[in-house]
Design a protein that fits this description.
Layout: H1 23-32, E1 47-48, H2 60-68, H3 77-90, E2 94-98, H4 101-112, E3 118-121, H5 126-134, E4 138-141, H6 162-172, E5 180-183, H7 196-209, E6 213-216, H8 220-230, H9 239-248, E7 252-256, E8 267-271, H10 274-287, H11 298-310, H12 314-333, E9 346-350, H13 351-354, H14 364-376, E10 378-379, E11 381-383, H15 385-388, E12 390-391, E13 398-399, E14 405-409, H16 417-432, E15 440-444, E16 455-458
Parallel strand pairs: 1-10, 3-4, 5-6, 6-7
Antiparallel strand pairs: 2-8, 7-8, 9-14, 11-14, 12-13, 15-16
Helix pairs in contact: 1-14, 2-11, 3-11, 4-5, 4-10, 6-7, 8-9, 12-16, 14-16
The structure holds ligand F0G.
């Protein structure tokens, strides 16, 4: 019998000290940051769960690769190593390196979209949607019917609604859809996975209408591991073989190497389409760089190439899922409402349900984010009305977001079990006194992406 304790399948070779702060210090830091933790200094944060993007710890092998990086402008050895690592897993003909995921999105959509184009997705990530809308096109979310029941367990809540995809194609016409996209795992939908069955079904619909199919591959390894654990017929396949099968159904992908590339920077765009690749490389040269480095240094390409191999290690994935699940289960068993089941890279607390006495107009998610920092020096991110609230241009009244969530994203290979235990303890302490939490008001904001810079003030009364 294997032991029930799943250990971190690595030991620590180099450490980065965490500065321990007192609650009194954190109170001052909160005031100075106007209660917006994007405005706080990272060194004032004890456990940083703001994002899993670019925050991974690299392995000794990756650091060795960094020293080996070839910094030649054209034809760098590191590029060829990177191209080979990408093709081995993703299998596409053209591999275009970029500095991060959104650069791949910008290049892809500027080529295929025109005003009025429609891009369906299970759920667009913010940068994907923004790049589409910037071109006058529309990004349409088609999450499966199970996605809206946050508390219900379902193995593949990231699936796309295939009937809705068919109706959309009928409604707007295939000519207006340059490509269909699916995001694995579905980050904006709670980090939930997409099944192989669903990927295959999207491929079939695309074939019926002659549409290209792209995957937003940011968390592909986590998605493939979910398939291994949950989809019948895949339990004996390697995660790598599952990933290869996922991409075999697609015509290309966009990727942020900052997630499942286990790198601190980097990304790529892949396609099997020669003219698209040609046009992509032309745009790449304009703003990113020559096609064998694409805005990265040779050492970044090495780190990503090695990271892509390491991320498919099943001992690593088992540990990663165990630590995310551990956090989710321990807080939800005590009563904290979270999006169920736990996703691969993050736990999403339903702050609207946790703090029913704070209306969306007083930002319950922000209140929880501030309190987690005050209590434990933990940084999380609000994904609710601060981020997505929209002011009605006529009435000037702010429309709340669909949900008031707080995301606790887990950086890869960075925190240990005791860090997670500490986070659980802090969340439960805040949960105990949830009735004392108060709402916030925004005192200063910008018209776009206000959550990054806006200032808050605590409300004294309900
Ligand atoms: N697609 C998905 C699904 C993402 O989660 C992200 C980034 C991107 C694309 C863009 O990639 O940051 O390399 O340009 N998500 C980060 C997050 C920022 O915190 O969830 P990028």
């Amino acid at each position: 019998m294997p032991f029930k304790t799943i250990i971190e399948p690595f030991r620590i070779k180099m450490i980065e000290p965490i500065r321990l702060t007192t609650q009194a210090e954190r109170e001052t830091i909160l005031q100075q940051a106007h209660y917006n933790l994007f405005l706080a200094r990272a060194e004032d944060v004890m456990i940083d769960l703001l994002t899993d993007s670019g925050t991974s710890a690299m392995s000794a092998e990756q650091w060795a690769g960094i020293v080996r990086g070839d910094e030649s402008y054209a034809g760098s050895r590191s590029y060829y190593r990177f191209e080979q690592a990408v093709q081995e897993i993703f299998g596409f003909k053209h591999v275009i390196p970029v500095h991060q995921g959104r650069a791949a999105e910008r290049i892809l959509f500027s080529i295929v979209c025109k005003p009025g184009s429609v891009i369906p997705n299970n759920t667009h990530f913010d940068t994907t949607r923004a790049n589409i809308e910037y071109l006058g096109a529309r990004g349409i979310d088609l999450p499966g019917p199970k996605a809206k029941y946050t508390q219900e367990h379902h193995p593949f809540k990231g699936d796309m609604d295939i009937d809705a995809l068919k109706s959309l194609i009928e409604e707007v016409g295939a000519d207006n859809i340059p490509l269909v996209m699916i995001t694995c795992t579905n980050n904006s939908g709670g980090g939930q996975p997409v099944s192989m069955r669903n990927i295959r079904a999207v491929r079939e619909v695309c074939d019926q209408h002659g549409l290209p199919f792209f995957i937003d591959a940011c968390r592909f390894a986590e998605n493939a591991y979910f398939i291994k654990l949950r989809e019948p017929g895949y339990e004996h396949k390697s995660v790598k073989a599952i990933a290869q099968e996922m991409f075999s159904y697609a015509d290309g992908c966009t990727m942020s190497g900052k997630k499942d590339g286990l790198a601190n920077i980097g990304g790529f765009l892949c396609t099997n389409d020669d003219p698209l690749a040609q046009a992509g490389k032309e745009l790449l040269i304009l703003t990113e760089g020559f096609p064998t480095y694409g805005g990265l240094s040779g050492r970044d390409l090495e780190a990503m190439a090695i990271g892509l191999e390491e991320v498919l290690d099943e001992a690593y994935l088992q540990y990663r899922f165990a630590s995310t699940r551990y956090l989710g289960e321990h807080i939800s068993e005590a009563g904290v409402p979270i999006v169920q089941p736990p996703g691969g890279h993050a736990i999403y607390i339903d702050a609207g349900a946790l703090l029913p006495h704070i209306p969306p107009s007083q930002y319950p998610g922000q209140s929880l984010v501030v309190e987690l920092y005050r209590a434990g020096g933990i940084r999380a991110v609000e994904i609710g009305s601060v981020m997505f609230g929209k002011v009605d241009p006529e009435t000037r009244v702010e429309q709340p977001a669909r949900q008031e969530l707080v995301r606790l994203a887990i950086p890869r290979r960075v925190y240990t079990q005791s860090h997670v235990d500490y986070v659980v303890e802090a969340i439960l302490q805040v949960y105990e006194r949830r009735n004392t939490l108060r709402g916030y008001k925004i005192t200063q904001q910008t018209p776009f992406l206000r959550h990054f810079t806006c200032w808050f003030e605590p409300l004294q009364e309900r």
